[in-house]
Recover the amino acids of this structure.
């Protein structure tokens, strides 16, 4: 099938199932540090990126966050941030794995996705997420810094919050997602690649 061909019914059905899994996993969040919570809702999108390419993976991330808007507790700010950070991860990993579909290629793709997630997480938090929380949720800069300081006493400014909490959290999240994808992809590969009846 050419790159510009319409997606098949099997591709659409896989995207639908993986999107539903993303939404389900999004409901299970583990508090980690300050106001950051760890979830594995991006994992099905990573598997989609490896099996179908970065385009479907990005679409699944978008669908996950659009659906989650129905019960958002952050006025859509958290969903926008997740769409950007997770989107960068699956785009980076998906593009790299598409070029080298080997075990080494998968490791490189997952490591690059984690690095991209970490860098994007810092940028998105500093320039978008925190200002949006200040504007929409009424949180002051001092209140946000205080939440960071409660978790790490060395946090005394927003740059320190990014360096000491935001970056390590996103690195941890990317590493956890990468480890889960590494363990699951080969096991799930037959289901992700084979249409029913084949």
């Amino acid at each position: 099938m050419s790159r510009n061909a319409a997606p098949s019914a099997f591709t659409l059905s896989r995207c639908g199932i993986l999107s539903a899994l993303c939404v389900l996993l999004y409901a299970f969040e583990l508090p980690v540090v300050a106001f950051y919570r760890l979830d594995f809702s991006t994992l099905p999108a990573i598997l989609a990126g490896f099996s179908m390419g970065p385009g479907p993976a990005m679409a699944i991330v978008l669908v996950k966050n659009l659906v989650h808007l129905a019960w958002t507790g952050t006025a859509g700010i958290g969903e926008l941030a997740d769409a950007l950070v997770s989107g960068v991860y699956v785009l980076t990993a998906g593009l790299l794995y598409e070029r080298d579909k080997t075990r080494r290629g998968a490791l490189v793709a997952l490591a690059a996705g984690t690095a991209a997630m970490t860098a994007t997480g810092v940028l998105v938090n500093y320039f978008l997420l925190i200002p949006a929380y200040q504007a929409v949720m009424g949180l002051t800069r001092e209140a946000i810094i205080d939440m960071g300081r409660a978790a790490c006493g060395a946090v005394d400014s927003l740059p320190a919050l990014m360096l000491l909490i935001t970056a390590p959290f996103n690195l941890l999240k990317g590493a956890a997602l990468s480890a889960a994808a590494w363990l699951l992809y080969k096991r799930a590969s037959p289901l992700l690649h084979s249409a029913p009846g084949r």
